[in-house]
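Allow me, if you will, to draw on your knowledge of protein folds for a short while. I have a record of one protein: its chain in single-letter code and its fold written as C-alpha coordinates. I should value your view on which stretches of the chain appear to form regular backbone elements. Thank you for your consideration; the sequence and its C-alpha coordinates are set out here:
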Amino acid sequence: MSWIHSLLFLFLVFPWCITGESSSPEVTDDGAPMDKSEREALYSAIQGFVGDSWNGSDLYPDPCGWTPIQGVSCDIYDDLWYVTELTLGLVHENSLSCTASLKIKPQLFELKHLKSLTFFDCFTSSTTISKEDWVNFGNSLESLEFRSNPGLTGELPETIGSLSNLKSLVVLENGFSGKLPRSVCNLSSLKRLVLAGNSFTGTIPDCFNGFKDLLILDLSRNSLSGTLPSSIGEMVSLLKLDLSNNHLEGKLPQEIGLLKNLTLLDLRNNRISGGLSQSVENIRSLADLVLSGNPMDSDDVMGVKWENMGNLVILDLSKMGLRGEIPSGLIKLKRLRFLGLNDNELTGTVPSKELETLPCLGALYINGNNLTGELRFSRKFYEKMGTRFKASKNPNLCQYDIVSESPKYVLPLGLKPCKMKKTEGDLVILQTLSNLKKEESSSSMSLRVTRHVLSKGFMWDLLLELSFIVLLK
Protein backbone atom coordinates (compact mmCIF):
# COMPACT_ATOMS: atom_id res chain seq x y z
CA MET A 1 0.00 0.00 0.00
CA SER A 2 1.41 3.41 -1.02
CA TRP A 3 1.68 6.23 1.45
CA ILE A 4 -1.26 7.98 -0.28
CA HIS A 5 -3.55 5.02 0.35
CA SER A 6 -2.37 4.84 3.95
CA LEU A 7 -3.19 8.49 4.53
CA LEU A 8 -6.62 8.09 2.97
CA PHE A 9 -7.30 5.12 5.25
CA LEU A 10 -6.48 7.22 8.32
CA PHE A 11 -8.84 9.99 7.17
CA LEU A 12 -11.70 7.51 6.79
CA VAL A 13 -11.21 5.57 10.02
CA PHE A 14 -10.14 8.36 12.36
CA PRO A 15 -11.79 11.54 11.12
CA TRP A 16 -11.82 13.01 14.63
CA CYS A 17 -8.00 13.15 14.65
CA ILE A 18 -7.94 16.15 12.34
CA THR A 19 -11.04 18.07 13.44
CA GLY A 20 -9.21 20.16 15.95
CA GLU A 21 -10.94 22.86 18.06
CA SER A 22 -14.39 23.68 16.73
CA SER A 23 -17.69 25.26 17.85
CA SER A 24 -19.64 22.35 16.35
CA PRO A 25 -22.14 20.47 18.53
CA GLU A 26 -20.64 17.90 20.88
CA VAL A 27 -21.77 14.29 20.57
CA THR A 28 -23.30 12.75 23.68
CA ASP A 29 -23.03 9.14 24.85
CA ASP A 30 -26.28 8.22 23.15
CA GLY A 31 -25.24 9.71 19.84
CA ALA A 32 -27.26 12.97 19.79
CA PRO A 33 -25.33 16.26 19.93
CA MET A 34 -26.22 19.26 22.10
CA ASP A 35 -25.63 22.76 20.86
CA LYS A 36 -22.73 24.26 22.80
CA SER A 37 -24.45 27.62 23.35
CA GLU A 38 -27.53 25.81 24.71
CA ARG A 39 -25.45 23.93 27.25
CA GLU A 40 -23.58 27.05 28.33
CA ALA A 41 -26.85 28.95 28.79
CA LEU A 42 -28.26 26.11 30.90
CA TYR A 43 -25.18 25.85 33.11
CA SER A 44 -25.04 29.59 33.64
CA ALA A 45 -28.75 29.74 34.51
CA ILE A 46 -28.41 26.90 37.01
CA GLN A 47 -25.39 28.54 38.63
CA GLY A 48 -27.51 31.62 39.26
CA PHE A 49 -29.87 29.52 41.37
CA VAL A 50 -27.59 26.99 43.10
CA GLY A 51 -24.31 28.94 43.30
CA ASP A 52 -21.17 29.41 41.22
CA SER A 53 -19.50 26.38 42.82
CA TRP A 54 -21.68 24.16 40.65
CA ASN A 55 -20.23 23.73 37.13
CA GLY A 56 -21.64 20.42 35.97
CA SER A 57 -18.18 18.89 35.63
CA ASP A 58 -19.46 15.55 36.92
CA LEU A 59 -22.11 15.45 34.21
CA TYR A 60 -19.81 14.87 31.23
CA PRO A 61 -20.56 14.98 28.39
CA ASP A 62 -23.84 16.95 28.84
CA PRO A 63 -27.15 17.03 30.81
CA CYS A 64 -29.10 15.28 28.07
CA GLY A 65 -26.86 12.19 27.86
CA TRP A 66 -26.42 9.30 30.24
CA THR A 67 -25.81 11.61 33.21
CA PRO A 68 -28.81 13.98 33.25
CA ILE A 69 -29.36 16.71 35.83
CA GLN A 70 -32.27 16.12 38.19
CA GLY A 71 -35.01 18.54 37.14
CA VAL A 72 -33.78 18.94 33.56
CA SER A 73 -35.45 17.27 30.58
CA CYS A 74 -34.50 17.55 26.92
CA ASP A 75 -35.88 16.84 23.50
CA ILE A 76 -34.43 16.78 19.98
CA TYR A 77 -35.04 19.59 17.51
CA ASP A 78 -33.32 19.45 14.10
CA ASP A 79 -31.10 16.60 15.33
CA LEU A 80 -29.88 18.60 18.35
CA TRP A 81 -30.68 18.34 22.07
CA TYR A 82 -32.49 21.30 23.64
CA VAL A 83 -33.76 21.82 27.18
CA THR A 84 -37.57 21.55 27.39
CA GLU A 85 -38.21 21.29 31.15
CA LEU A 86 -36.39 22.95 34.05
CA THR A 87 -37.37 22.51 37.70
CA LEU A 88 -35.38 24.26 40.42
CA GLY A 89 -35.74 23.55 44.13
CA LEU A 90 -35.89 20.48 46.35
CA VAL A 91 -38.78 18.72 44.65
CA HIS A 92 -36.90 15.43 45.15
CA GLU A 93 -34.09 14.47 47.50
CA ASN A 94 -31.50 14.68 44.74
CA SER A 95 -32.88 17.88 43.20
CA LEU A 96 -30.73 20.99 42.95
CA SER A 97 -31.37 23.16 46.00
CA CYS A 98 -31.43 26.92 45.58
CA THR A 99 -28.91 29.15 47.35
CA ALA A 100 -30.09 32.00 49.57
CA SER A 101 -28.40 34.57 47.30
CA LEU A 102 -29.86 33.29 44.03
CA LYS A 103 -30.44 35.45 41.00
CA ILE A 104 -32.19 34.99 37.69
CA LYS A 105 -29.51 35.25 35.03
CA PRO A 106 -30.41 36.44 31.53
CA GLN A 107 -29.05 33.17 30.11
CA LEU A 108 -32.21 31.47 31.43
CA PHE A 109 -34.21 33.20 28.72
CA GLU A 110 -31.86 31.91 26.00
CA LEU A 111 -33.31 28.39 26.31
CA LYS A 112 -35.42 28.81 23.22
CA HIS A 113 -37.30 25.48 23.36
CA LEU A 114 -38.17 25.59 27.07
CA LYS A 115 -41.74 24.38 27.62
CA SER A 116 -41.93 24.03 31.40
CA LEU A 117 -40.30 26.16 34.12
CA THR A 118 -40.86 25.56 37.84
CA PHE A 119 -39.46 27.25 40.96
CA PHE A 120 -40.19 25.31 44.15
CA ASP A 121 -39.18 26.75 47.54
CA CYS A 122 -36.31 28.68 45.99
CA PHE A 123 -36.90 32.34 46.86
CA THR A 124 -36.68 32.74 50.64
CA SER A 125 -35.21 36.26 50.87
CA SER A 126 -37.05 39.24 49.37
CA THR A 127 -36.80 39.17 45.57
CA THR A 128 -38.77 40.87 42.82
CA ILE A 129 -39.06 39.54 39.28
CA SER A 130 -38.17 41.96 36.53
CA LYS A 131 -40.59 42.54 33.68
CA GLU A 132 -37.98 42.09 30.99
CA ASP A 133 -36.99 38.90 29.17
CA TRP A 134 -40.25 36.96 29.68
CA VAL A 135 -41.26 37.85 26.13
CA ASN A 136 -38.44 35.55 24.96
CA PHE A 137 -40.55 32.60 26.11
CA GLY A 138 -43.64 33.81 24.27
CA ASN A 139 -43.66 31.07 21.64
CA SER A 140 -42.35 28.15 23.68
CA LEU A 141 -43.36 28.15 27.35
CA GLU A 142 -46.47 26.10 28.13
CA SER A 143 -46.17 25.76 31.93
CA LEU A 144 -44.89 28.29 34.48
CA GLU A 145 -45.02 27.58 38.20
CA PHE A 146 -43.91 29.51 41.29
CA ARG A 147 -44.64 27.28 44.31
CA SER A 148 -43.88 28.04 47.97
CA ASN A 149 -41.55 30.99 47.46
CA PRO A 150 -42.23 33.39 50.36
CA GLY A 151 -39.42 35.68 49.24
CA LEU A 152 -41.06 36.48 45.91
CA THR A 153 -42.57 39.89 46.55
CA GLY A 154 -43.94 42.76 44.53
CA GLU A 155 -46.34 42.49 41.64
CA LEU A 156 -46.62 39.70 39.14
CA PRO A 157 -44.94 41.01 35.95
CA GLU A 158 -47.27 42.31 33.24
CA THR A 159 -45.06 40.58 30.68
CA ILE A 160 -46.42 37.23 31.88
CA GLY A 161 -49.30 38.05 29.55
CA SER A 162 -46.97 37.71 26.55
CA LEU A 163 -46.72 33.93 27.06
CA SER A 164 -49.36 33.24 24.47
CA ASN A 165 -48.86 29.44 24.44
CA LEU A 166 -49.13 29.07 28.21
CA LYS A 167 -51.50 26.28 29.26
CA SER A 168 -50.73 26.23 32.99
CA LEU A 169 -49.90 29.19 35.23
CA VAL A 170 -49.47 28.29 38.91
CA VAL A 171 -48.48 31.04 41.36
CA LEU A 172 -49.08 29.28 44.67
CA GLU A 173 -48.13 30.40 48.19
CA ASN A 174 -45.67 33.14 47.41
CA GLY A 175 -45.32 36.73 48.60
CA PHE A 176 -46.76 38.46 45.53
CA SER A 177 -48.98 41.47 46.16
CA GLY A 178 -50.71 44.26 44.28
CA LYS A 179 -53.42 43.92 41.68
CA LEU A 180 -53.74 40.99 39.32
CA PRO A 181 -52.08 42.02 36.05
CA ARG A 182 -54.74 42.57 33.41
CA SER A 183 -52.39 41.02 30.89
CA VAL A 184 -53.47 37.66 32.33
CA CYS A 185 -56.54 38.15 30.16
CA ASN A 186 -54.34 37.50 27.12
CA LEU A 187 -53.61 33.92 28.21
CA SER A 188 -56.62 32.44 26.43
CA SER A 189 -54.91 29.06 25.93
CA LEU A 190 -54.82 28.37 29.67
CA LYS A 191 -56.28 25.18 31.07
CA ARG A 192 -55.19 25.88 34.64
CA LEU A 193 -54.87 29.26 36.39
CA VAL A 194 -53.88 29.10 40.07
CA LEU A 195 -52.95 32.34 41.86
CA ALA A 196 -53.76 31.15 45.39
CA GLY A 197 -52.06 31.89 48.69
CA ASN A 198 -50.56 35.27 47.86
CA SER A 199 -51.50 38.83 48.87
CA PHE A 200 -53.19 40.00 45.68
CA THR A 201 -55.63 42.88 46.12
CA GLY A 202 -58.15 44.73 43.99
CA THR A 203 -60.92 43.28 41.86
CA ILE A 204 -61.01 40.23 39.63
CA PRO A 205 -60.56 41.35 35.99
CA ASP A 206 -63.75 41.00 33.95
CA CYS A 207 -62.10 39.33 30.99
CA PHE A 208 -62.82 35.62 31.12
CA ASN A 209 -64.90 35.55 27.96
CA GLY A 210 -61.99 34.12 25.95
CA PHE A 211 -61.12 31.32 28.38
CA LYS A 212 -63.05 28.57 26.63
CA ASP A 213 -60.55 25.81 27.57
CA LEU A 214 -59.92 26.73 31.22
CA LEU A 215 -60.56 23.81 33.56
CA ILE A 216 -59.29 25.13 36.91
CA LEU A 217 -59.50 28.68 38.31
CA ASP A 218 -58.16 29.08 41.84
CA LEU A 219 -57.81 32.60 43.26
CA SER A 220 -58.27 31.57 46.90
CA ARG A 221 -56.46 32.92 49.97
CA ASN A 222 -55.79 36.45 48.75
CA SER A 223 -57.33 39.82 49.56
CA LEU A 224 -59.40 40.25 46.42
CA SER A 225 -62.48 42.45 46.72
CA GLY A 226 -65.46 43.64 44.68
CA THR A 227 -68.06 41.50 42.97
CA LEU A 228 -67.64 38.40 40.90
CA PRO A 229 -67.52 39.42 37.19
CA SER A 230 -70.31 38.22 34.92
CA SER A 231 -67.80 36.99 32.31
CA ILE A 232 -67.02 34.10 34.65
CA GLY A 233 -70.04 32.36 33.19
CA GLU A 234 -68.35 32.11 29.78
CA MET A 235 -65.72 29.62 30.92
CA VAL A 236 -67.83 26.78 29.62
CA SER A 237 -65.24 24.05 30.28
CA LEU A 238 -64.56 25.01 33.91
CA LEU A 239 -64.48 22.13 36.40
CA LYS A 240 -63.14 23.83 39.53
CA LEU A 241 -63.76 27.37 40.78
CA ASP A 242 -62.17 28.28 44.12
CA LEU A 243 -62.49 31.88 45.29
CA SER A 244 -62.48 31.15 49.01
CA ASN A 245 -60.91 33.30 51.73
CA ASN A 246 -61.05 36.69 50.02
CA HIS A 247 -63.16 39.84 50.51
CA LEU A 248 -65.57 39.36 47.61
CA GLU A 249 -69.01 40.86 48.11
CA GLY A 250 -72.39 41.46 46.48
CA LYS A 251 -74.56 38.90 44.76
CA LEU A 252 -73.44 36.01 42.63
CA PRO A 253 -73.97 36.78 38.95
CA GLN A 254 -76.71 34.74 37.31
CA GLU A 255 -74.18 33.78 34.63
CA ILE A 256 -72.48 31.39 37.03
CA GLY A 257 -75.40 29.05 36.38
CA LEU A 258 -74.06 28.58 32.83
CA LEU A 259 -71.08 26.57 34.09
CA LYS A 260 -72.69 23.25 33.24
CA ASN A 261 -69.49 21.22 33.80
CA LEU A 262 -68.56 22.68 37.18
CA THR A 263 -67.93 20.07 39.88
CA LEU A 264 -66.46 22.27 42.65
CA LEU A 265 -67.54 25.73 43.77
CA ASP A 266 -65.79 27.04 46.89
CA LEU A 267 -66.78 30.55 48.01
CA ARG A 268 -66.23 30.18 51.76
CA ASN A 269 -65.20 33.12 53.94
CA ASN A 270 -66.18 36.01 51.69
CA ARG A 271 -68.93 38.63 51.96
CA ILE A 272 -71.24 37.33 49.26
CA SER A 273 -74.81 38.24 50.13
CA GLY A 274 -77.16 36.55 47.67
CA GLY A 275 -77.96 35.37 44.19
CA LEU A 276 -77.62 31.72 45.08
CA SER A 277 -81.06 30.31 44.28
CA GLN A 278 -81.09 32.03 40.88
CA SER A 279 -77.90 30.39 39.68
CA VAL A 280 -76.38 27.51 41.60
CA GLU A 281 -79.29 25.10 41.49
CA ASN A 282 -78.94 25.05 37.70
CA ILE A 283 -75.46 23.53 37.96
CA ARG A 284 -76.51 19.90 38.17
CA SER A 285 -72.89 18.70 37.83
CA LEU A 286 -71.81 20.18 41.20
CA ALA A 287 -70.28 17.67 43.61
CA ASP A 288 -68.66 20.07 46.11
CA LEU A 289 -70.46 23.26 47.17
CA VAL A 290 -68.83 25.22 50.00
CA LEU A 291 -70.50 28.51 50.97
CA SER A 292 -69.71 28.80 54.69
CA GLY A 293 -68.92 32.16 56.21
CA ASN A 294 -70.94 34.27 53.76
CA PRO A 295 -73.77 36.51 55.05
CA MET A 296 -76.21 35.39 52.38
CA ASP A 297 -79.87 36.17 52.58
CA SER A 298 -81.46 33.27 54.45
CA ASP A 299 -84.52 33.08 52.20
CA ASP A 300 -82.26 32.93 49.16
CA VAL A 301 -80.34 29.91 50.43
CA MET A 302 -83.29 28.12 51.98
CA GLY A 303 -85.22 28.56 48.75
CA VAL A 304 -82.82 26.43 46.73
CA LYS A 305 -84.38 23.24 45.39
CA TRP A 306 -81.67 20.97 46.80
CA GLU A 307 -83.40 17.87 45.51
CA ASN A 308 -82.42 18.93 41.98
CA MET A 309 -78.71 18.79 42.84
CA GLY A 310 -78.42 15.03 43.10
CA ASN A 311 -74.65 14.90 42.47
CA LEU A 312 -73.73 16.82 45.62
CA VAL A 313 -71.14 15.03 47.76
CA ILE A 314 -70.01 17.92 49.98
CA LEU A 315 -72.37 20.68 51.10
CA ASP A 316 -71.17 23.25 53.63
CA LEU A 317 -73.71 25.91 54.63
CA SER A 318 -72.25 26.69 58.05
CA LYS A 319 -71.87 30.15 59.60
CA MET A 320 -74.29 31.84 57.21
CA GLY A 321 -77.01 33.08 59.58
CA LEU A 322 -79.57 30.68 58.12
CA ARG A 323 -83.03 30.66 59.69
CA GLY A 324 -85.94 28.25 59.51
CA GLU A 325 -86.07 24.48 59.54
CA ILE A 326 -83.56 22.10 57.99
CA PRO A 327 -84.56 22.01 54.28
CA SER A 328 -86.44 18.86 53.41
CA GLY A 329 -84.72 18.67 50.02
CA LEU A 330 -81.43 17.74 51.71
CA ILE A 331 -82.72 14.31 52.65
CA LYS A 332 -82.95 13.43 48.96
CA LEU A 333 -79.22 13.91 48.26
CA LYS A 334 -78.29 10.24 48.14
CA ARG A 335 -74.61 10.87 47.30
CA LEU A 336 -74.03 13.32 50.13
CA ARG A 337 -71.05 12.52 52.36
CA PHE A 338 -70.55 15.78 54.24
CA LEU A 339 -73.29 18.11 55.45
CA GLY A 340 -72.37 21.22 57.43
CA LEU A 341 -75.25 23.24 58.90
CA ASN A 342 -73.53 24.35 62.08
CA ASP A 343 -73.42 27.81 63.62
CA ASN A 344 -76.62 29.14 62.08
CA GLU A 345 -80.04 30.03 63.52
CA LEU A 346 -81.92 26.94 62.41
CA THR A 347 -85.04 25.97 64.34
CA GLY A 348 -87.47 23.08 64.43
CA THR A 349 -86.78 19.39 64.87
CA VAL A 350 -84.03 17.27 63.33
CA PRO A 351 -85.29 14.77 60.72
CA SER A 352 -83.15 12.05 62.27
CA LYS A 353 -84.69 9.02 60.59
CA GLU A 354 -84.62 10.66 57.16
CA LEU A 355 -81.02 11.81 57.46
CA GLU A 356 -80.00 8.37 58.62
CA THR A 357 -81.27 6.88 55.36
CA LEU A 358 -78.66 8.80 53.34
CA PRO A 359 -76.40 5.87 52.35
CA CYS A 360 -73.13 7.79 51.95
CA LEU A 361 -73.38 10.33 54.78
CA GLY A 362 -70.19 10.23 56.85
CA ALA A 363 -70.12 13.65 58.54
CA LEU A 364 -73.01 15.72 59.90
CA TYR A 365 -72.63 18.98 61.82
CA ILE A 366 -75.78 20.64 63.20
CA ASN A 367 -74.22 22.19 66.32
CA GLY A 368 -74.64 25.85 67.21
CA ASN A 369 -78.30 26.31 66.23
CA ASN A 370 -81.71 26.58 67.96
CA LEU A 371 -82.94 23.11 67.05
CA THR A 372 -85.46 21.50 69.38
CA GLY A 373 -86.94 18.12 70.20
CA GLU A 374 -85.33 14.74 70.36
CA LEU A 375 -82.53 13.13 68.37
CA ARG A 376 -83.69 9.71 67.28
CA PHE A 377 -80.60 8.41 65.47
CA SER A 378 -79.85 4.75 65.97
CA ARG A 379 -76.86 3.27 67.73
CA LYS A 380 -75.53 2.11 64.36
CA PHE A 381 -75.60 5.70 63.09
CA TYR A 382 -73.58 6.99 66.04
CA GLU A 383 -71.07 4.18 65.64
CA LYS A 384 -70.68 5.02 61.97
CA MET A 385 -70.23 8.76 62.53
CA GLY A 386 -68.07 8.81 65.63
CA THR A 387 -66.68 12.30 66.19
CA ARG A 388 -67.88 13.41 62.75
CA PHE A 389 -71.32 14.10 64.22
CA LYS A 390 -71.82 17.22 66.34
CA ALA A 391 -75.08 18.57 67.74
CA SER A 392 -74.01 20.56 70.80
CA LYS A 393 -75.02 24.16 71.56
CA ASN A 394 -78.68 23.54 70.77
CA PRO A 395 -80.26 24.45 74.17
CA ASN A 396 -83.58 22.72 73.52
CA LEU A 397 -82.28 19.63 71.77
CA CYS A 398 -81.91 16.39 73.72
CA GLN A 399 -80.67 12.88 73.05
CA TYR A 400 -81.66 9.42 74.17
CA ASP A 401 -79.12 7.21 75.86
CA ILE A 402 -78.57 4.05 73.87
CA VAL A 403 -77.01 1.10 75.66
CA SER A 404 -74.03 -0.24 73.71
CA GLU A 405 -70.92 -2.18 74.55
CA SER A 406 -69.24 -1.30 71.24
CA PRO A 407 -66.00 0.74 71.57
CA LYS A 408 -67.02 2.58 68.39
CA TYR A 409 -70.14 3.95 70.00
CA VAL A 410 -69.75 7.66 70.80
CA LEU A 411 -72.71 9.77 71.87
CA PRO A 412 -72.61 13.42 70.78
CA LEU A 413 -71.14 15.60 73.50
CA GLY A 414 -72.88 18.64 74.91
CA LEU A 415 -76.48 17.42 74.71
CA LYS A 416 -78.65 16.73 77.72
CA PRO A 417 -80.50 13.42 77.94
CA CYS A 418 -84.18 13.45 77.05
CA LYS A 419 -86.74 13.19 79.89
CA MET A 420 -89.84 11.05 79.74
CA LYS A 421 -93.18 11.23 81.50
CA LYS A 422 -94.47 8.07 83.09
CA THR A 423 -97.91 7.68 84.70
CA GLU A 424 -98.70 5.26 87.54
CA GLY A 425 -102.25 5.68 88.69
CA ASP A 426 -102.64 9.26 89.81
CA LEU A 427 -98.82 9.77 89.99
CA VAL A 428 -97.01 11.66 87.24
CA ILE A 429 -93.34 10.74 87.43
CA LEU A 430 -90.50 12.49 85.54
CA GLN A 431 -87.32 10.55 84.99
CA THR A 432 -84.53 10.43 82.46
CA LEU A 433 -84.41 7.67 79.90
CA SER A 434 -81.25 6.33 81.52
CA ASN A 435 -83.10 5.94 84.83
CA LEU A 436 -85.92 4.24 82.99
CA LYS A 437 -83.50 1.70 81.59
CA LYS A 438 -82.12 1.06 85.07
CA GLU A 439 -85.67 0.38 86.26
CA GLU A 440 -85.94 -2.48 83.81
CA SER A 441 -82.98 -4.22 85.41
CA SER A 442 -83.71 -3.40 89.10
CA SER A 443 -86.50 -4.10 91.56
CA SER A 444 -89.37 -1.66 91.64
CA MET A 445 -88.72 -1.18 95.37
CA SER A 446 -85.20 0.19 94.92
CA LEU A 447 -86.11 2.44 92.02
CA ARG A 448 -88.97 4.16 93.84
CA VAL A 449 -86.43 5.60 96.24
CA THR A 450 -84.78 7.66 93.45
CA ARG A 451 -87.94 9.05 91.86
CA HIS A 452 -89.19 12.62 92.18
CA VAL A 453 -92.93 12.35 92.78
CA LEU A 454 -95.12 15.15 91.49
CA SER A 455 -98.64 14.44 92.68
CA LYS A 456 -101.30 15.71 95.01
CA GLY A 457 -100.46 12.90 97.44
CA PHE A 458 -96.93 14.22 97.98
CA MET A 459 -96.69 13.63 101.74
CA TRP A 460 -97.98 10.06 101.54
CA ASP A 461 -95.55 9.28 98.73
CA LEU A 462 -92.68 10.78 100.71
CA LEU A 463 -93.49 8.57 103.72
CA LEU A 464 -93.79 5.62 101.38
CA GLU A 465 -90.33 6.27 99.97
CA LEU A 466 -88.86 6.64 103.49
CA SER A 467 -90.37 3.31 104.47
CA PHE A 468 -88.70 1.67 101.50
CA ILE A 469 -85.39 3.18 102.57
CA VAL A 470 -85.79 1.63 106.03
CA LEU A 471 -86.63 -1.72 104.50
CA LEU A 472 -83.62 -1.54 102.20
CA LYS A 473 -81.33 -0.94 105.16
Remarks:
- The CA atoms of residues 123 and 245 lie 25 Å apart.
